[in-house]
Specification:
Layout lengths: L8 H8 L18 H6 L6 H16 L3 E7 L5 E7 L9 H14 L2 E2 L5 E6 L2 E7 L1 E2 L5
Antiparallel strand pairs: 1-2, 2-5, 3-6, 4-5
Amino acid sequence: MITNPPENLESFARQIGRAAAIRYDDPFDDPDFDIMAWINTLDFLPESLVIRRNEFIEWAGAAGFVDIEMRDLDEPDFWELRCKRGTNAECTTPCQVERCLGFVARGAGCQFPPGQFIAIVDGESIAARFRLESREEQV
């Protein structure tokens, strides 16, 4: 017989010597809940920027980049991109990354204004900060 009331279900399970099924009604009560992953799924951007970001990520994935993360930098159309080269073996310098991502931007209907792109390449990893603007079609 258990004389002391259990502090929680886990200690109760230890006291009786078997595992108890633990169910959390609120995910914030779960000690394994990854709050940062949940926060990163929230979009606080206007719908037009969410569409632009998702379209850019889709084009970057189609171009062979993998593990793509892109976030807004709280200025109009300034972005940070982190990814791995994937199948883009030629992207070994910042200039080559700018060229490849320039094609990605063009596919997404955007372009980098002159002087508004910076990248760091470290082995397979790429980090870039840039500004996107709508691409005006040449007639």
